[in-house]
Amino acid sequence: RSKWEKPEKIPRPRNAFIIYRTANSRKIARDLKARGKNGGILNQKVSQYAGEQWKAEPEEVKERYRGYARQEAEQHKRDYPDYVFRPRR
To answer: Does pTM top 0.70 for this prediction?
Structure first.
């Protein structure tokens, strides 16, 4: 590897909401399309609607997704034991 190549960027583990949004994005997009509310900026609208849906979900559904996020974080630690999140400034 030359000194000019960037090292491989390790992605952060996803949080519960991101896993929820990923799991439900197709359904949410269909719901928005059926309501005529996709507005041409589908990804932004899907995220906005997913946030509203997430807030309305019962605590047991949220806890299920938090469990998925914990599992993903544990797997991430096994895959990348030296990983440290360093936000760009």
So the answer is: yes
